[in-house]
Amino acid sequence: MTRTKTRTQRPPLFKVMLLNDDYTPMEFVVHVLERFFGLNHAQAFEIMLTVHKKGLAVVGVFSYEIAETKVAQVMDFARRHQHPLQCTMEKE
Ligand code: TYC
């Protein structure tokens, strides 16, 4: 007899991460976190500090399309303000 494993198919999730650099102002990063990730000021400040101290932090976990959009929005916003801030995504 063949045993069939039934498993709920879940879409893969992606971590969106912010990377530290020496030039992007702290207030700009806090603003990015509030604007694109819906964090309140205290949460945004805390995550910004984690990135600043540890080098990077996960700022959210999303479906592929949403993660890709967040990364593009952050990169575009940073570029338009001429800050070297980097945002990347990685499969969970
Ligand atoms: N390290 C930056 C500074 O000292 C602040 C910073 C925090 C930059 C988080 C990027 O993702 C970042 N101005």
UniProtKB/TrEMBL annotation:
Molecular function GO labels: peptidase activity
Residue span(s) of domain Adaptor protein ClpS core: 10-88
Keyword Protease appears in the UniProt entry: yes
Single Gene Ontology BP annotation: proteolysis
Keywords: Hydrolase, Protease
A Pfam family: ClpS
Family, similarity comment: Belongs to the ClpS family.
Function: Involved in the modulation of the specificity of the ClpAP-mediated ATP-dependent protein degradation.
Oligomer status and interactors: Binds to the N-terminal domain of the chaperone ClpA.
PANTHER family named in the record: ATP-DEPENDENT CLP PROTEASE ADAPTER PROTEIN CLPS, ATP-DEPENDENT CLP PROTEASE ADAPTER PROTEIN CLPS1, CHLOROPLASTIC
HAMAP family the record matches: ClpS
Name under which the protein is recorded: ATP-dependent Clp protease adapter protein ClpS
Gene: clpS
